[in-house]
Design goal:
single chain; about 140 residues; alpha+beta; Alpha-Beta Plaits; 5 strands; globular; binds flavin mononucleotide
Length: about 140
């Protein structure tokens, strides 16, 4: 069984983020993720974040602790936390895109947990992850 897990959450920025502030957050996160082997994507829309990240159990524990401790956001609501068989964003130390409010809302209210049938098939994805992968295919630069 693989040691990989994935976590997704939505949160509110403590203050509205400027492009420069988002960039500096990303530089920091990508550096840390390169060290720890964490990959994923971060979306931002009008003061709200949605992040999906994946990596080894131990690196996820450390990374999630750091993310939860950050003063730059609050009201973190976890929407996914589970073991995975393979990465969905292997090439992204932390991809970034701005999203619309309705895109973020759709992502945060989708079902992310896989049903038993989906979990048995390691290549099946939940509706939430499928939505994120679709969004990312359109948004990535
Ligand atoms: C929205 C958001 C996403 C983050 N993503 C990551 C990440 O992918 N990897 C990581 O190691 N840290 C991540 N962090 C933590 C930051 O890199 C940094 O360690 C933290 O923000 C520092 O705490 P401070 O914001 O209170 O100064 C994230 C923080 C926020 C607010």
């Amino acid at each position: 069984m693989s040691d990989l897990k994935a976590i997704a959450y939505v949160s509110s920025a403590t203050q509205l983020m400027t492009v420069a502030q988002l960039e500096s957050l990303l530089v920091e996160a990508r550096d840390l993720n390169l060290e720890s082997g964490v990959t994923g994507v971060l979306l931002y829309s009008d003061g709200n974040f949605m992040q999906y990240f994946e990596g080894s159990e131990e690196s996820m524990r450390v990374t999630y602790e750091r993310i939860r401790a950050s003063q730059r956001h609050k009201d973190i609501m976890e929407i996914l936390n589970e073991r995975i068989a393979q990465r969905s964003f292997p090439d992204w130390q932390m991809g970034f895109a701005q999203a619309t409010q309705s895109e973020l809302l759709a992502l945060s209210t989708a079902r992310w947990q896989r049903m038993a049938g989906e979990a048995r098939d390691s290549s099946a994805v939940s509706p939430g992850l499928a939505l994120l992968q679709n969004f990312w295919r359109r948004a990535r630069k």
